[in-house]
Amino acid sequence: MGSSSSRLDRVPGAKDLMEETGFSETNILCLYDRFEVLDREERGYLRLEDFEAIQQLAVNPIGDRIIGAFVFPGRETLDFPSFVRVLAHFRPTDTTWSRSGSQPEPANSRTRKLRFAFSLYDQDGDGKISRAELTEMLQAMLGMQVTDEQLQSIVGRAIQEADLDRDGAISFDEFKKMAASGQTGLKSVSSIMYRTKQQQQQQQYICGEGGTEQVHLKHSCQTLMFIFC
Amino acid sequence: MDALVLCLLLSAYPLGCPGLTPPAQLPQPHNLPPAPGSNGSHRSLSVDLPMALRVFSVDYHHVQAPFEIVLWIMLASLAKLGFHWSGRVPAVVPESCLLIMVGLLVGGVIYGVRHSAPPTLSAEAFFLFLLPPIVLDAGYFLPGRLFFENLGTILWYAVLGTLWNVLGIGVSLYGVCLLAHSSLGDVSLLHCLLFGSLIAAVDPVAVLSVFQEMHVNEQLHILVFGESLLNDAVTVVLYKLFESFLRLPSVSGLDVLLGGCRVVVVGLGGLFVGLFFGLVAALTSRFTSRAQVIAPLFVFLYSYLSYLTSEMLHLSGIMAIVTCAVTMKQYVEANVSERSNTSIQYFLKMWSSVSETLIFIFLGVSTIQDVHMWSWPFVCSTLLLCLVWRATGVLLLTAVVNKLRRNAVTFRDQFIIAYGGLRGAICFSLVFLIDDFPKKRLFITTTIVVILFTVFVQGMTIKPLVELLDVKRKKRALPTVSEEIHSRLIDHLLAGIEDVVGYWGQHYWKDKFEQFNKKYLRRFLIREERQARSSILRVYQELERREQRGDEEAPPLVDPRSNSRPLLPEEMDSIRRILSRNLHNFNKRQTPAYSRHTLHQDATMDRTRKPLHRHQSLGDRYTYNTITHWPQVEDVEFNGSHKLRAGLSRSHTVCSISPRHVLQDTSAPVSTAQTAPADPRSSSATADQVSPQHQTPGGRGPKKQLSFDLESEKK
């Protein structure tokens, strides 16, 4: 569409981003619009405060960890390409991509997705989920609901089940195995695709023609398909 | 068992039933003469001379009406008892079939003895007395979260599906009538449409009675069940519409349009009536603390009132009563005492059970009549068309709705939805209400045949078919703790990313409602001190209960070395409940099929009474949503935990059984193995009782799911 390609020029480095992450033109545009909404002071980059201003994220138990995945302590700011790159993890997995290809592993491969989840647990980045980290995560998720004994009991069980080499911590491989087995939320979560796909199609229609009205609507950008596996 | 039933049958036969009105529309009105037995009222056995005082007399006439009603109910209940004792039969034949057969037997006996038609179910008695308890029970125990999540699909099936069926069956039947012009020539299109409207409706009573014995996955269950509840609005409106069209000299396009508006008005009207009464009931229950014994009464009175009001206004009574029940449930449960809660639930189950049994028995009895008119083409084509139209309707609608849903309705589910569309007593009553016309008897006969066919054939074969098709049952294999944690993490992660990207998801409206609920409704409708239950309170109660139970039973000793054994179901149960309390769960939760005969919180209810009354005054604490309150909450929590320690030490010193040593070093893996077994029973007790009040952040936690967890794990 003629109009959208001119709009695409607004987005810096859009073409490279599209190639790198596999997002479609519409997706990039909508993400850019959302980026602009979040970037209230129009600095061109996002900061911690912008993320913290997202209301619902504040009540999310792991909200701070999610923000940490975007804006980690080393970096002060988050520009648009980095924003998109993080979100690229959440695209549906391409079944056509094969490991033996020469391209680097795309962000939405299963392993990368699991890595992303792993990094939410593993805050200190040592490659293992220690007991303390798991406890912290559970505490965040459960809040003040449980006594310490119950918490420890749960953590103990979890480590016991997943820790195959009995070193008291869960490594990435053990994590992968655990996520692969059984009927965890990973598979059923894929059902979100159906809804978001529909909304994406709706959004495509809107995005295609003068999408400035979206910026006025607060939560109007619904494009990404979120499959985790 | 059979002898018992037969005895009752024989005792029932001499009694006529003038209490139940015979169908007035029958061409040969069978005004039931007072049965031979009642003549005894005019004679009285006397010991003395006729003029002296009578020492012993029988005056049956005095008590006739209530006596007979009670006897019918007694017959129904004893039959039900008998079935549950009869071994393998209930596994194969659903209860509804057995009850109809008993009804047929009784009807046959009565007919054989008196050579006239047995009493039949009057439409009034059915709609005013027998149907409301069933629907109220269904509405009260409706799994709320699941229902609202699937509401779009349910409405889709209920409204569009019913319309499709009605129009399809009506028009095709008219075609059949045209083809068989010789015998069916005088059945007009409107008559066919009228007939279509009453025969197309799926009946909640029949559906429930069959599905409750099957364990299908809960999504499927709620789809069929929800559809059968909601299509009442469409059915009744269409029925009344076509009936009024029949009375009009001619039908114009405007009338059809108005009819369409009526559907909307009836449905929404019923909804609002129900909402109104539900809120008033909730408000009333707030003030029942001083007269707890009559608290359950308000629930029933207001619900019934909503039903009657909407019937008076010609709105949808079923919608009203379901809405009323759903609305008032959470507030009433928070306001009334535990015993009242139990009473409410038990009475609901009891009444709905009796109602259902009576309905089926009378379906059987009413089948034995003089007034059948048979027509092979009509009956067979009706049967066929019902099946065909329902199947195609479900297929088409599902194809469309699957694009919009997150969990697709699989082909197997569709088959069960189509096949599980049972017809029941609503059709039967509606057909009797038709204005008289030459072919009315044919309609009655056909309706009876369709009902019997669906209940017997479809009802009996659905279970083997389900097994054959391997409908996605509730998963018996329980995920491990780490999987649970991980899946919750993913849920939160996705919700967070959705927020970052600005994607609403389905939580948006739910969150909005929860906020509104918390801010206004709960404050207004729930008693002051009940407004939020602290989790500390809950844990404390748990410990209290553990202490009490320690006096009654000894929990099994756990081998301290076996901390790597597989988890017991109860432990997983408690852990899962702890996890799910706070966390939104996209997964298909495991819930038991809705059951008319059991309460899920059975095992735990009586244990929870004592501690609860003692500790109502413990401080309130809000969870996540009101993060700003945390500073002042700290000290409450501290006090709470202080009491916690006190409670712990009590249990520590009082009993010497090792699983109780909760105060020991909790980081040692040994103690965790020991505390875990004691946890589940107590926490399961608390969760069920307190779950209704617990507000989870942003409405993300499944509130009602908790009470079902126990049952699913135990099974």
Question: How would you portray this structure in words?
Answer:
Chain B: GO terms for molecular function: potassium:proton antiporter activity; sodium:proton antiporter activity. Chain B: Residues 74-467 form the Cation/H+ exchanger transmembrane domain. Chain B: It is a multi-pass membrane protein. Chain B: InterPro entries: Cation/H_exchanger_CPA1, Cation/H_exchanger_TM, NaH_exchanger, NHE_CaM-bd. The complex is a heterodimer of chains A (229) and B (715). Chain A has 229 residues and is mainly alpha-helical. Chain A has 14 helices and 2 strands, in the order H-H-H-H-H-H-H-H-E-H-H-E-H-H-H-H. In chain A, helix 3 (25-38) crosses helix 13, helix 6 packs across helix 8 (110-121) and helix 9 (131-142) crosses helix 10. Chain A is globular. Chain B folds into 4 domains: 1-30 and 51-62, no CATH class; 123-469, Na+/H+ antiporter like fold (Up-down Bundle); 484-553 and 572-586, no CATH class; 613-709, no CATH class. Chain B is built from 28 helices and no strands. Chain B has helices at 2-12, 60-85, 89-92, 95-114, 123-140, 144-149, 151-179, 181-184, 189-199, 204-211, 218-247, 253-286, 295-312, 317-335, 338-367, 376-401, 411-419, 425-432, 440-469, 481-501, 507-525, 535-552, 569-582, 602-605, 609-614, 630-654, 669-690, 705-714. The two termini of chain B are 28 Å apart. The model of chain B is unreliable at 1-44, 533-539, 551-567, 583-593 and 601-715 (pLDDT under 50).
